[in-house]
Design goal:
Length: about 210
């Protein structure tokens, strides 16, 4: 029995190691981007305000990694003036055109796959699901890509009267559903996505040593 359990654990360990993907940084390191252009995000969620809220969270983690990041609001305005007011059009535009317009070394594309709050009567789960892709501004090649998912569920206090706990859980769930706080969750997703070593990108030329 013991041997059987050990064999199963070994198989699970080997399977886990086999399925874990190690990112290839060869193209990224060869490109050596110094500046990153963040274009308007494609929003596939039902929350129309998601792109604006998300853009307020993305600049800091990249800047802290040591890259020059173009002001996202200025970028959005300039693209609109250039006839690219729709994020879908921006993502389908030539990477080289976008990078030349701003003098950027690389372009970051983000897609919001999920940005919602699921009401479960006694709890509310706030979810974000984001896909990041960085492309070389000169060649259009993909230098790095990653998918990041985050889920937040408010924790309930385990002490107190059961009825009071139940009422508190219902109230907290209703509040979270009515006004879900996505910004901290999106910030956390960004920080984890760009963590290196890990799934993220290597430090840029302006990173503090």
């Amino acid at each position: 029995m013991t041997r059987l359990i050990l064999s199963i654990l070994l198989m699970l360990l080997v399977t886990g190691c086999a399925t874990a993907k190690v990112k290839d940084y060869e193209k990224f390191n060869a490109a050596k981007p110094r500046s990153i252009l963040i274009v308007p995000v494609v929003n596939r969620s039902v929350e129309v305000t998601a792109p604006d809220y998300f853009l307020s969270t993305i600049t800091i983690p990249l800047a802290e990694k040591g890259y020059y990041v173009f002001p996202v609001n200025l970028v959005k305005r300039m693209l609109e003036d250039d006839g690219l007011s729709d994020s879908g059009l921006v993502h389908n535009a030539s990477v080289e055109k976008l990078s030349n317009l701003f003098g950027a070394d690389a372009v970051l594309y983000v897609t919001i796959n999920q940005w919602d709050a699921q009401y479960l009567v006694l709890s509310t789960q706030v979810n974000v699901d984001l896909t990041y892709v960085i492309k070389d501004g000169k060649t259009g090649d993909t230098l790095w890509e990653h998918n990041q998912k985050m889920v937040y569920s408010p924790q309930q206090n385990s002490g107190g009267h059961p009825l009071a706990q139940l009422i508190s859980a219902v109230v907290n769930a209703a509040i979270a559903k009515a006004a879900p706080n996505y910004v901290p969750l999106a910030s956390q997703a960004n920080n984890q996505a760009f963590t290196y070593p890990g799934p993220g990108i290597p430090p840029g030329p302006y990173a503090q040593q």
